Amino acid sequence: MKYFLFLLVFSFSLCCENQKKPDAQDIVDMAIAQAGGERYYNSKIEFDFRDKNYCAVRDNADFKLERQTFKDSVVTTDILSNSYFLRLENEEQVALADSTKIKLSNSVNSVHYFSVLPYGLNDPTARKTYLGEVKVKGHNYHKIEVTFNEEGGGTDFDDVFLYWINTKNYYVDFLAYEFHVNGGGMRFREAYNERTINGIRFVDYKNYKPIDKVTKLHELDASFETSRLELLSNIELENVKVEECISC
Questions:
Q1: What are the strands of the beta sheet with 160-166, ordered from one edge?
Q2: What value does the mean pLDDT of the chain take?
Q3: N or C terminus of the chain with fewer C-beta within 10 Å?
Q4: Selecting from 2.50.20, 3.90.550, 3.40.50, 2.60.40, what CATH number does the domain 23-244 have?
Q5: CA-based angle 245:247:248, to the nearest 5?
Q6: pLDDT tens per residue, range 23-70
Q7: Is the pLDDT of residue 2 over 70?
Q8: What's the pLDDT tens digit per position in 193-224?
């Protein structure tokens, strides 16, 4: 009888060991495929955000991200590519200090990065960790943490991101992040106004911050469920246009 019980326990342990833990990379790959997949790699995406015009041209590994601001008779264009950043005012290049270039580059990149999530999650410097399956607003989600290597990870490499990826359709419905610039803080975003344009999924976000200053980043989904987040703003992309871009 004891031998039988031993075999039963051993078999159960072996079964548990053989159950493969979900792989964060596989989940992210599926999320990208569901949101647009290969359409991202050769695309021209334009949109308006908070009185500025943005345009992203991606040609496989090459990219050019632009932001245009219009004030009085001056058109200011910021351009970020794989190898350079420059600012133009009415098509004339403006001399900038290196520190200013870094600040403006981060600002341009941030808006473009969030506009096409989850596409950017396969950046070579991104490290992904599976945190388990959780339930938010009655739906099941894979909870994924994304951090970045210091080398190649930019000036904000120490920021930490969380993504909630629906276990059925693999859409990113929620995200959160902790940042350290300007005094630092945390944000939680809820996706809404989902639409697909020429095969690429876009969403807007309700942007929240925690009411309680002792709340930890990994607790923000629980805080959202219990209404302990404060709505700061709506993040809305307007006039979104998507074109296929072959050898732009």
A1: 126-136, 139-148, 160-166, 172-179, 185-197, 200-210, 229-235
A2: 88
A3: N
A4: 2.50.20
A5: 60
A6: 999 999 999 999 999 999 999 999 999 999 999 999 988 999 999 999
A7: no
A8: 999 999 999 999 999 999 988 899 999 999 99
Q: Which residue in the block uniquely carries the two structure tokens 């969403």?
A: 203
pTM: 0.86
Rounded to the nearest 5 percent, the helix, strand and coil shares of the chain are 25, 45, 25
For the beta sheet containing 42-49, the strands, ordered from the edge strand earlier in sequence to the opposite edge, are 92-94, 85-89, 74-81, 62-71, 52-59, 42-49, 238-244
DSSP string, 125-162: TEEEEEEEEEEETTEEEEEEEEEE-STTS-TTTT-EEE
Asked if residues 184 and 178 have their Cβ atoms less than 8 Å apart, the reply is yes
What gap in Å lies between CA 40 and CA 58, rounded to an integer?
Answer: 7
Q: What's the CA gap between 93 and 87, in Å, rounded?
A: 6
Q: Read off the amino acid at residue 59.
A: D
